[in-house]
Amino acid sequence: MTVSSDPHVTLPRGMVVAQAWAALGDAVAPLSNASGRPLTRTVKLLLDPLVLRPVRNPHLASGAVAAEHVDELRDTIAAAGPVLAATAAWFVLLKKTRRQAGIADGHPQDLYFQHCFELAHQHGDPAHLPDATAVAAESIAEIHSPATRLTVAELRRFVTDPARRAELTRLLTVAWAGARDPGAEPVDVAGFLADPDPDLFATLVAQGAGTRGAGELAQPGVARGYGLTDRPRLSPPALGDSASKQQLPKPLDRSVFERLFAAIRQVVTDDPDALVRNEIHRTAQPWQLAEEVSRVVMVLGRAASAGLVDEEVTGFGARLRARWAKEAYVRRVLRMPSAVPEDLLADVHGVRGAYLRRLWVRLHGRELRHETLAAVELWSVLDGVLRSVIMDQRDRLRSTLERAAR
User: Fold this and answer.
1) Coil, strand or helix: which one is 32?
2) How many Å apart are CA 64 and CA 215, to the nearest integer?
3) C or N terminus of the chain, fewer CB within 10 Å?
4) 213 by DSSP, 3-state: which?
């Protein structure tokens, strides 16, 4: 296929990735779907963060790739072919070892993909490693070690113990009764979004800009307008004892159990007591996040995402808006809203809510993993959230069109 050298010509990134992936052949089949394309998790967990590295190579990250960069994208995937093939082989071996160990907890792709990529770099193809079976067994034991990882079943047993449950419910009541109202003071973060100076970010954190920026969430309908809740007002969560990944409520409507269930694979701890108590405390904090850095990022995300709904923005906000506007399905909805599926119409018009929900989930996960967040990483975080939302919307659009064609 000949690609124009005109820098104004673009090709859909997904199409280019699929073509490059197909050239890798059957060796990567365990990382592919029935159509031979890379699985969604393959893109999200392997190709994007470990091969294409969109933070370092933003020209390879957008939904449409300029013609001048198409060969680079293909060559990058081709160069990673051997390690991706080895990753696939390790994934098959780890799944076999998992079955032999009788393990059913957690999604194998989420748990093993990146670990298999590391094994591929360290050892190459497991077929060429005499003790590959032992390495796989050690890997499975490490990933599922009860000394470091809490399972959903263990978390449920902890919160459903009758005596403990009464105490935890009381703690919830006390935490919310003691929550302070930060007031609805307006916070100006436009300067940082236009010029992301680390010193300015440190000043925003020190001045409690995230806490102060959460004040308006107490007003009726505000948090619902941001897509973070379905309730007219924020209210204390239930303790909860059940959850479904397919039917999780919006972030600020989730029970304590649902919040931890959604992120349990990210948690490295064998202490459910501390985990649950910390989460109870977190629910009563501004933005329902425990750290001021996280709250400041929510305020920044709220300001930057305004451009997704046609408000005037600059800096980070303008860059998010530009990425969003490049998407072919977005342009189609805006140009001919009556000619697109209702699901897609709702996705496009609800993008800001989807964005802020995904941002909250990312920040909540970072807190549970005790990860720090520096000013230089903020564009990567804000942009990565939008890319994730776009990928989900594309997948839903594809499913809608496939159903319509049956």
Assistant:
1) strand
2) 38
3) C
4) helix
Give the CA diameter of the chain. Answer: 70
Contacts of 309 (CB under 8 A, 6+ apart): 351, 352
Return the pLDDT at 4: 47
**The model's pTM:** 0.68
Cα 81 from Cα 218, distance rounded (Å): 51
Q: How many whole angstroms from its chain centre is CA 60? A: 19
Taking the C-alpha atoms of residue 18 and residue 74, their distance in angstroms, rounded to an integer, is 10
User: Which residues are within 8 A (CB) of 190 and not within 5 positions of it... i.e. 6 or more apart?
Assistant: 303, 314, 315
How confident is the model over 266-315, as pLDDT tens digits?
777 878 999 999 999 999 999 999 999 999 999 999 999 999 987 788 89
For 65, list phi and psi in degrees, rounded to 5: -100, 130
- What's 43's DSSP letter? I
Separation of alpha carbons 93 and 91, rounded Å = 5
Structure-token pair, residue 210: 């995230």
Compute and round to an integer the Cα radius of gyration of the chain. Answer: 23
Amino acid at 202: A
Question: Rounded to whole angstroms, what are the CA distances from 47 to 24, 33, 74, 305, 312?
Answer: 13, 15, 12, 26, 34
Distances (CA, A) of 273 to 24, 156, 167, 196: 47, 12, 11, 39
